[in-house]
Amino acid sequence: MKTALTIAGSDSSGGAGIQADIKAMQAMGVFAMSAVTAVTVQNTCKVFAIQEMRPEIVRDQILCLFEDIKINAVKIGMVSSTVLIEAVADALSRVRRPPVVLDPVMISKSGYPLLQEDARNRLVKRLLPLADVVTPNLHEAAALTGLAIENTEQMKSCAQKIHAMGPATVIIKGGHLEGDQANDIYYDGSRFQILKAPRFETANTHGTGCTFAAAIAAGLAKGLDVYQACTEAKIYVTGAIEHSLNIGKGHGPTNHFWRLYRKAGIVW
Q1: How far is CA 1 from each of CA 73, 126, 170, rounded to the nearest angstrom?
Q2: Could you read off the pLDDT tens digit of each residue along the chain, which spans 268 residues?
Q3: In the chain, what are the domain boundaries?
Q4: Any idea which residues carry the catalytic annotation?
Q5: Cβ neighbours of 158 (radius 10 Å)
Q6: pTM of the complete model
Q7: Are 9 and 41 a contacting pair, CB within 8 Å?
Q8: Angstrom distance (rounded) from CA 130 to CA 167
C-alpha cells in the first residue's frame, strides 16, 4: 500500500488539520501518517488558542518515519512560526524527498492567525521551493504576492508570481469568488488549466483546503501525474462538500468518506 505523511496542526473538532488529512488520505486509498506541528483549541465556531510543538520534536517525528517507512508523498499544512518552518525544511533536506504538497495555511475561517507575520517570508524562502504543488486560497495568494484578486485573470497573474517563487505547480483556489462555480486555476509554468466544479450552498466547509491538499498528496503517492492528481482531488473534495456534515453550531466539516458511505448505503 502507498503511504503519505501529513505535517500539520491538530484540529480538536476533527474537521481540518491532521484529522482531515488522515481521513482524506485513507479515503483515497493511501496509508496516512502524521507529524504534528501544533495543538489547537478549536470547535466549528472558532480557534481559541494554539500550542506549538517544540521544533526538534517536529523534525524528529519526520525523520523517524523516513528512517523506517517508505513515504510516497508529503503534505505540509499549518507551520505557524519561523522555527517550525526551519524544522520542517531541515528534516526534508535530510531525506530522499518524495513529492511535496504545500497548503500555506495563514488564517482560520473565524479570523484567527495561523501563520505568524514574521514567518511569511521564511515560508516563501524555505518551503515554497520544496513544493511540487502549492494550494493557496485567494486570501493566502494575495498575502503571498500583494496582488488583489477579484477575477480569473488576476488569479492567473497571481499564479505566475507564486510560481516564480519556486514551486513546480500552483493551484489558486477560487472558492471565495462570487458565482455558481467554484473553479481553481492550475499553473505549471507552461500552461493554465481550470479545475471546474459546481458551488454548493452550505456553511459546512471547514477543512476544505486541508482535504484538497491531502487528496492531491494521496494521488501523487499512488503515482498519478500532477495534473491528474489535482483533478482527482478536485472531484473528491467537491463531493465531500456536496455531502458535508451538519455538525456543530458554526462551519461543519466536509464528509471525507462520502464515497464509502454511499457504496455502503449509509445515510447520515
Answers
A1: 13, 30, 28
A2: 999 999 999 999 999 999 999 999 999 999 999 999 999 999 999 999 999 999 999 999 999 999 999 999 999 999 989 999 999 999 999 999 999 999 998 876 656 666 777 788 899 999 999 999 999 999 999 989 989 898 999 999 999 999 999 999 999 998 767 778 889 999 999 999 999 999 998 999 999 999 999 999 999 999 999 999 999 999 999 999 999 999 999 999 999 999 999 888 887 6
A3: 3-264
A4: 173, 205, 207-210
A5: 24
A6: 0.96
A7: no
A8: 7
In order of 61, 85, 124, 129, 212, the CA distances from 7 in angstroms are 9, 11, 17, 17, 15
Alpha carbon distance 18, 77 (integer Å)? 8
Do the beta carbons of residue 2 and residue 30 sit within 8 Å?
Answer: yes
Query: What residue type is assigned to position 109 of the chain?
Result: K
Q: Which of 221, 265, 263, 257 is nearest to 237 (CA)?
A: 257
- Which residue type is seen at 144? L
Residue 254: all three cell numbers together: 466536509
The architecture in CATH of the region 3-264 reads: 3-Layer(aba) Sandwich (3.40)
